[in-house]
Amino acid sequence: MFDSILVANRGEIALRVMRAARSLGLRCIAVHSDEDADAPHVAFADDAACIGPAPAAQSYLNAEAILRAARRTGAQAIHPGYGFLSENADFARAVEAAGLVFVGPPPEAIKLMGDKAAARRRVAEAGVPCLPGYDGPDQSDARLIAEARAIGAPLMVKAAAGGGGRGMRLVRELDALPDALARARAEALAAFGSDALILERAALGARHVEIQIMADAHGATIHLGERDCSVQRRHQKLIEEAPSPALDPELRARMGAAATAAARAAGYRGAGTVEFLLDRGGDFFFLEMNTRLQVEHPVTEAVCGLDLVALQIRVAQGAPLGLAQEDVRLNGHAIEVRLCAEDPAAGFLPSTGPVALWRAPEGVRVDHGVGPRISAHYDSMAAKIIAHGPDRETARRRLIAALERTALLGPATNRGFLIAALRAPLFAQGAATTAFLDEAGVDPAPPLSEEDWALGALAAFLRGRRASRAAMVSDPAGLENWSSAGAAAWTARLRAAEAERALRVSARGAALRVETGAAAFAARIERDEPDGATLRLDERRVRMFHAAQGDALLLALPWRDLRFTRADRAAAAGDQAGPGLVRAPMHGVLTDMAAEPGLEVAQGQRLATLEAMKMQHDIRAPAAGRVKAVHAQAGAQVAAGDPLVEIEEP
């Protein structure tokens, strides 16, 4: 038994674990980097210790610093959360060697399942079906290319260590294999410290279905049903649900039996997930086993009525599970989305910086650790929003409504994309596969409508009116919007998505008229609040949030987020950014610079590679031309907005 627990993680999962631990009467200890000193998980904890600078390698991945923090704060157990050191067998072993309890599986199980090659071999021996592939020790390009020819295209190149979509490449044509091997190796080495790879036949158009298992130290191993995680981008999950629309009770029982067999073969204890690909014919194949709590565990909790973190902790304290397979009942349907700080219009590049406004929706579960800023040093996920209902359609509609009431302004987010994805007929029908982004036709950056421009004008108008009121000695409400020339008018120039508009709002009493240059709307403000407004635009009632950052005006509308620039103010401030200047889209390390002065480049050609938020991101030419200057070299640490390459257009 133990009565204090240190959570070796940050953000929403650190808060999630500490809430469960506190419900069990445990003292909760947080660790944090210098960057996270004012983070919510630190404020929530009973005690906290700084473990190093912002880079994860010097803090959350620094096992010795975490163990020192545990000794200093009197922790008796360590919960790793997910990510960072959660699947590091050496860390689990070091925790136990220090006389502490590791809230997770035995180090031997972590090591086995953390090596995808060894895991494939072990589960195959236990009768679990696997895709044809190569998982041998010869990692030379020649051997991998030869094995790929035998497997045939399309195939997947995957890091043997780690997960989360890092070190993974889909190869549709074998000619692209050498580059895929090099890129996968580099990403895997940076993320996991190992560049070992495996090859597997690609099952295109399959579903990604995973089985949640729980095992105790007394011989009990059960499964808690499945989650469907097919909606992904860059092999990272965006939408997860339980149960899967594709499974019937018979298939669920077969996949559950395979998952528990894999867990027993690994000598497993605690919470874990066995991931499968389910093809259109109903055949399933082992992908990997995640020896930790999953990001998407809340949907399982919602349909099973169990607290998985509390179960983890009790198992770690030596208690039996207290339930058998026949005790597991699935109730209703749950869907989760990952609200990420990333820009869908820029190929889902991570977005960082200060948070101007955060408003979580009510009536659904929201797991988050949103603090004053989104850091470039950590994962881009800011929050998880989970809706539960008696059936799938109810859960889907509740989740859409919740996202419409959500605002995270400052960095760009995928909120609008998530709403569009949930509304897509393919998802509504329960037919989404891992090819969803290609098949559903969801536009990650739809063009601005005249209504969007009008709402931007109204937000700017309301913020300007509030500033004027604040500057007044008195506030003669009866004279507001009065002009001796008739209707009072306000004008501004706003820029968004490479377009610029001159906008006009005229007011006569409470009645407003908005002109966008191409359309005109009647408007009336029903409620004006410091961070938003409820208004009528023609006959449509709209609730919006808004905030400002410098010359940027930020809006969260029920259907999308918008970022406008006050073009008149930017011009007055001397904004000289030309179309040929390529800037860093975020903080990170420049791992490669392919551009050099005098080089002729085509539009979309890769200029450089930036490593940020544990991923490698290609920086591409916005237009064809000649490289005039290169402002940074490989190995440089760059900040968001730093100039990288200057291109002269022909």
UniProtKB/TrEMBL annotation:
Residues 120-317 form the ATP-grasp domain. Its cofactor is biotin. Residues 573-648 form the Lipoyl-binding domain. InterPro entries: ATP-grasp (IPR011761), BC-like_N (IPR005481), Biotin_BS (IPR001882), Biotin_carboxylase_complex (IPR050856), Biotin_carboxylation_dom (IPR011764), Biotin_COase_C (IPR005482), Biotin_lipoyl (IPR000089), CPAse_ATP-bd (IPR005479). Keywords: ATP-binding, Biotin, Ligase, Nucleotide-binding. CDD domains: biotinyl_domain. Pfam families: Biotin_carb_C (PF02785), Biotin_carb_N (PF00289), Biotin_lipoyl (PF00364), CPSase_L_D2 (PF02786). Residues 1-442 form the Biotin carboxylation domain. GO terms for molecular function: ATP binding; ligase activity; metal ion binding. This is Geranyl-CoA carboxylase alpha subunit. It comes from Oceanicella actignis. The lineage of its organism: Bacteria, Pseudomonadati, Pseudomonadota, Alphaproteobacteria, Rhodobacterales.
